[in-house]
Structure formats: structure tokens, C-alpha cells
Amino acid sequence: MQVVGMKEAASTSGGRNDAKGVNLTASKTTLYKAQDLWDHIFGDERGLLAICHARAGEDFQTTFFNYPGSADTAAEFAREKAGLGRDVWFCTHLLTASRRVKENAAAVYALWGDLDGARVPKDTLAPTAVVRSSPGKFHCYWRLVDAIPPESAEQLNKRLASVIGADQSGVDLTQLLRVPGTVNRKYPERPVVEVTTLELARTYTAGELEKILPEPENSVFDEAATIEEIHDGTRNKDLTSIAGSLRHRGLDESAIYAALCGINTTKCKPPLPGSEVRQIAHSVARYEPRKLYPINGSRSSRSRIDQDREDRDQGGGVKNPKRSLRAVSFAGEPKPPARQFVVEGIVPAGVPTIVYGPSGIAKSFNILHLALSVAFVGLDTWHGRRIMTCPVIYLDFEMDRIEQLRRAQEVARGVGWPDVPKNFWYVNALGHSAAEVFDFAIEQLEDLSEALVIVDSFGFALAGESERSADVLTFMREHIGVLQMAGGHPLIVDHVARLVRGERAGNQDAFGSIYKKNAARSNIHVTGHQEEGSNQIYTTFTHKSTNIGPIAAPFTVITKFTADEVAFELSGEVIRPPAPESTADLIVAAIEEYGSMTNKEIAGTIDRPYKTVQNVTKELKDGGVLRTTETKRGGAPVLELAGVG
After folding, report:
1. Separation between Cα atoms, residue 584 and residue 350, nearest integer Å
2. C-alpha distances out from residue 88 to 11, 71, 77, 197, Å
3. Alpha carbons within 13 A on the beta-carbon side of 16
4. N or C terminus: fewer CB in 10 A for the chain?
5. Residues 499 and 633 in one domain
6. Do residues 40 and 145 share a domain?
7. Quick one: DSSP state of residue 103?
8. Span 453-467, average pLDDT
9. How does DSSP classify residue 246?
10. Do residue 627 and residue 518 come from a single domain?
11. Which among 248, 179, 228 has a CA at the least distance from the CA of 30?
């Protein structure tokens, strides 16, 4: 395996014949290129694009390309391999690391299916992209409005394939489908793989597809039977998941409770208390059972969904007793007051803001400083930005009271305050469910009228799957949304997604579902670094997106740590984390420090894949930086710097 970066490969001339005489001119002149398809199905995602190739009877060879920067290089590479008599495929989703396994699957922007002779569906489930892999054989893709977790995409693929008659073996994650512009050597005619349809204006939402695609027939009881044991730490979560499946199938509270009691007794080690099982059944039974819609009806999916809404508005479903829906006309309405901000330009009042970043960059200390500044009566600005003065409720799902007390006092001393502001209210949420904590926060808001509510952090508060859009949206609607209605200004602290090899830290996104960012009204990315031997961290705030006003300019706070206080200073310039060293730099530095080594020894020293090291040392030898010595260790040649000796 190898990873190809940003450098473009030299293009080959069009119109030549491949190793078996197949003319590849068609691959250069088709209406749509491979890059057009990838742009359609990968959307705004970043990651590794896997290109696999092989001759008949041979094992796959895989090369990884940084996407989207090396999309053109990947397409040219695929055409070159096709010209050498090889079949070429690509992984239908991007990856987060250079190994094609499910665990490395990135978020999915498009579903896929191998029709294997079935007809291309029309109307309700018409694909947004169609690729003809051979005469009468098609691969189809369904572009989504937003990226969804890979596990959710795999389940929707299965349901979709069942409805349209596609190949059930072609729905899994890490699936390979043919690259447009290459040759299908499975057939004597050697047809060129072509994109025949690409509808840029058509998209689907995962919610719509979940409604119109029947669920698999397997029973939740069959699924539970495959579980050997449910251990302490996951019991509540697993039983809640099973209860949700039962509710989706239409079971009421008593039936759900009876089923959970049996599973709790036989599977949970140790069993949960009966009262907790009853609470799970009661909580889940509040949701509506999922409605299933026939695929072959005369109405489109959109009209079915509209009808569902109409039915609900006319009496079906659960209504909020404190509110009722009504339609109003904006004509003649006076101009609303100006938008209020907790922190000028970046933290709007009354709507959610998400601040996300990795650990170790003083993110939590800076958010705590912000919270204390808002609670401090008489303080007007935070690092030059006007701030609202109001009570603060700090919901801490991660650490304990003593640690946060220590931090708050260190911050207060660092900025010269005699004590922590009285209007700062700390809530230790450890050991409590999210429902308990947020219900308590609502009670506090009733007494305070309004408050900045810090949720630290999203993942610990969620108590669900951050990559599941359903879990994230439920959390935002049932907890964060209720805080808003009660007078809260929610500020949510979150973590970042895994760093893709070759990706800069500044391009990282919040971990999990895209709906996290979509459900917030302002998103702030925090990066930072600490120089070796220094007691200060450069913490940079970058306003990534907002739908309330313009994007604010980035700024850097110098966070200074001493024995018993933390101080903050606004930098006069934006300070970005230094770019990570390249593999070549690491190899040269390792040999300079430790002496001559084999490729295997280098890989172990710099923590890089052996294949990557092998490729880079070859380039360094070709460039005259390294040379091969006459010595061997373990049968492998030893390398040294070319200037040695």
C-alpha cells in the first residue's frame, strides 16, 4: 500500500491502446470523468481515496490518495493501470487511515448499489448517479443532503438493495466499484466504464429514506439472542437501543418493559435494578412508532412525508402541551430588535454555539475564563470583544467539583480577581443521566431568567453515539432546544474527529455527525500548541461557520501557566500550530540522531508504516540524500546519510 499526496502525476496521452490493444480514447472523452463522480458522491468530505487494481487471478494492490487534493492524480493513476491491462476499482467512501477496513470508514455522503442486471429504479428511488459497468449492468449512487455515519449508510444500503433488487453482497462498507474511464476486462468486449447519469440537483435525506424503505425482517429478539452478555457500563445504553427497536416496531410501554425484563435477567451481568428498566421503557415509549410506507404506491416520497405531517397536525402524534403551532403573516410586522450576543460576533444569545478542538491546547481553561468573565459583574469585554453580563450555569459531565474549583480559582488569581464570581454556578453531572441534569438546569433557569449554559462536553453529555445523526438530533432537540426555550444561551464544548494522515490540524472537524454543526448557529474551532520547555500555550480560535452575521476574524490567546494561577493574554497576531514534519524530515532526523538503520528500524523509530518508509527512502536515495551501505542487518540493507564518511 502507499499514500499519494498532492503532487500531480504526469498525464498520459489520450487515444493510445492498452497492453491488450483496447483503445482508451473513450476513457478520455466520456461526458463525465471519474473526478465528476467522486465530487458528487464524496461531497465536502476529506480523507483517503482507495484505488485498487489487479489482473485476473491476482491479488488486489491498493494505493491511497489524499482527497480532494489528489483527485486528478488518482484518476490518472486509474487510467494508467487500466492501460497496463488491469481492472481498476475504488472504495465507495473515503477512509480515515490507509487500510481499507470498516473501522476506518469516513462519513458517507452517498449510498451505493451494484444492480447486477436489475433495472435502474425510477421516480421515488431514482439514483442521482448511474455508472454503466458493462452493457446492461449498472452501478448506482444516491447523493445525500448531509453526510451520515458509515454504519447508518450500510444499513440504508441493505434496505435499498432489498427494495430495488440490487446485489446484497455489494452494500457493505469498504465496497469496491469500478472507476469510470477504465476498462471492464471481465467481458471479452472490454467495455469502457462510463457515467451515464449525474443529477447534481437531486438529493435525498437519510430521514426520508428511513421512512420509505422497509426495515429488515429480522426480529430484535433474534438480535438480542446473539448477544452473549451485556456488562456493567453499557447496560443502560444497550437496553435503551433494544427498547428503541421495539418501539419502532409498534410495541407499547408494557410490552417493551416485559421484553427488557427478560433480556435484563438473562443477558445483563449484573442485571439493572427493575426501577431503571421500567424508566427506560417509559422514556422510550414517549416516541412515536416509525411509520413504514409502501414503495410501489402512486405518490412520491415527498407527498407521503407531507401527508404524514398533515395527519400529525390533525390530531395524531405527540404535541408539546406548552406550545401550539400556528401560521403567521410577516406583513406589517415591526422590525425585531438587534441580535444579541453573549460574546460579540461569535457566541450569539439564545441559540447553540459549539466550540471544538483537541485536548492539550488549554481549550477548557479558555472556555472557563470566558464563562467567569460573563458572570463577573462590571466586566465588559473578553479579549477585546464585548460580552453580556449574566449568570453562568456550568454543566460538567467530565470532571469533578474539586478539579473545577481548583481551575476556577487559578483563573481568578491569574486575571487578578479576589474570588470566583458569585454568578458562576457549577453543576457536577457525573453519575447523573442527561435527562436529570438538563431538567435541573431548566429549574435553575426558571429562577435566573437567563444564563449562559456551558455543556462540557458534548460526547459525555450525549451518552449515545456521536456519529449517529438520530442520537445527535434527539439530544439537540430534547435537551439543548429546551434550554433555549427556558432562556439559556447554550455553549457546547466538543472534541474533534481523528486526524487523517496528511491533514492539517486546522482542517479537523467536530467528531461525529455533521448534524452537530448543522444544529448549532455558530461553530468555533480551537487549535493550539506549546513550545518545548515553555509554560505557555498558544490557543487560536477560528470562527468556522455561522448563520447569524459574518464570520469573525481568528485570534490567538496566550495561555500562561504558573504554580497556582493561569493568566491569559491576547496575542497581537494569529499564531497557528507549526506544520507537522514530513516523513522524509523524520527519516533524516532519525538517522542523524541514532545512526544508520534499515527501513524496518526507521519505521519503528518514527512510527510510520514500513511501506511508506520504503517508498520515501527510495526517493531520498534517488535524490542523493541517503545511500545504501555494504552492511546488512536481518538480511536488509542498512542506510546512512549520503554525506557520512
Report:
1. 50
2. 17, 15, 10, 20
3. 12
4. C
5. no
6. yes
7. G
8. 86
9. H
10. no
11. 179
CA distance 399 to 365: 13
On the 0-12 / 13-18 / 19+ scale of CB atoms within 10 A, 565 is middle
pLDDT (average), residues 322-327 = 57
Q: Range of 125's domain?
A: 2-206
Quick check: pTM over 0.85? no
Question: Does residue 333 surpass a pLDDT of 90?
Answer: no
From CA 122, how far away is CA 311, in angstroms rounded? 27
Examine the pLDDT at 268 and tell me if it is beyond 90: no
Same structural domain, 470 and 446: yes
* Domain CATH number, residue 618: 1.10.10.10
Distances (CA, A) of 157 to 44, 189, 597: 21, 31, 48
| Region label for 41, one of left (φ > 0), alpha (ψ between -120 and 50) or beta (otherwise) | alpha
DSSP-derived secondary structure for 519-583: HSSEEEEEEEEE-TT-SEEEEEEEEEEESSSPPPPPEEEEEEE-SS-EEEEE-SS--PPPPPPPH
Indicate whether 56 and 154 sit together in one domain: yes
pLDDT tens-digit map of 546-585:
988 899 999 999 999 998 999 999 999 999 877 667 788 8
Domain count, the chain: 4
Which triple of cell numbers denotes residue 100? 481499507
DSSP string for 341-403? EEETTTEETTS-EEEE--TTSSHHHHHHHHHHHHHSTT--EETTEEB----EEEEESSS-HHH
Closest CA to 70 of 503, 581, 578: 503
**pLDDT confidence of 362, banded at 50, 70, 90?**
very high
383: alpha, beta or left? (left if phi > 0; alpha if psi -120 to 50): left
User: What residue has cell string 412508532?
Assistant: 289
The answer to whether 346 and 353 have CB atoms below 8 angstroms apart is yes
Contact 160, 142 (CB under 8 A): yes
Q: pLDDT tier at 510 (50, 70, 90 boundaries)?
A: low
Query: Dihedral, CA atoms, 398, 402, 403, 408, nearest 10 degrees?
Result: 110
Average pLDDT taken over every residue of the chain: 82
What are 36-52's pLDDT values in tens digits? Answer: 999 999 988 889 999 99
